[in-house]
Amino acid sequence: MRDIRITPHLTIPAGELAIAFARSGGPGGQNVNKVASKVELRWNPTTSSALGDYDRSWLVSKLANRLTTDGDLIVTSTATRDQMKNREDAAAKLALIVRAALERPKTRRATKPSRASKRRRVDAKRHRAEIKRNRRGDD
After folding, report:
1. pLDDT at residue 87 greater than cutoff 70
2. What dotted CATH number matches 4-102?
3. Which residues pair with 114 in a beta bridge?
4. Contacts with 116 (C-beta within 8 Å, 6 or more apart), sequence order
5. Where are the chain's structural domains?
């Protein structure tokens, strides 16, 4: 297994990944009973040396519902009948999950409406009021 590059600043070392194989379900005829093509990739972000303390706490909170009691993140792949392709698929899935979990929302900055937008709003209200006033037939 190779290192998995998540972002330009974060790479999961291959030594922290545990990979296991199992017989995969689904189509494949007699071959499915002989070949272990299902890939199960495990990574523990709580003990990973690739993460800083700030990133680790953020990632663990974001992935809390996906982590096991030991803190492992498990990704499986049964996309193909080829073990090597499933390995690559599992690694890509892991990278995608971690990359998405590490994204921090953009902080909102409070803004005030501009003077021109306030003027447009008031002018539109006056115009609408004028239209309604003209509809009334004051008899």
Report:
1. yes
2. 3.30.160.20
3. none
4. none
5. 4-102
d(CA 34, CA 56): 40
For residue 55, the SS3 value is helix
Q: 3-state SS of 89-131?
A: HHHHHHHHHHHHHHCCCCCCCCCCCCHHHHHHHHHHHHHHHHH
68: its two tokens: 């096991």
Q: Percent of the chain, pLDDT > 90? A: 57
- Residue 25: φ, ψ to 5°: -85, 180
Bridge partners, residue 75, by sequence? 41
Name the helix (H) or strand (E) containing 9.
none
SS3 53: helix
Contact between 52 and 27 (Cβ < 8 Å): no
Burial of 68 (0-12, 13-18, 19+ CB in 10 A): exposed
Segment 3-8 shows an average pLDDT of 88
Q: What angle do CA 16, 20, 24 make, to 5 degrees?
A: 145
pLDDT tops 90 at residue 88 = yes
pLDDT in tens, 23-73: 877 666 666 677 788 899 999 999 888 888 898 999 999 999 999 999 899
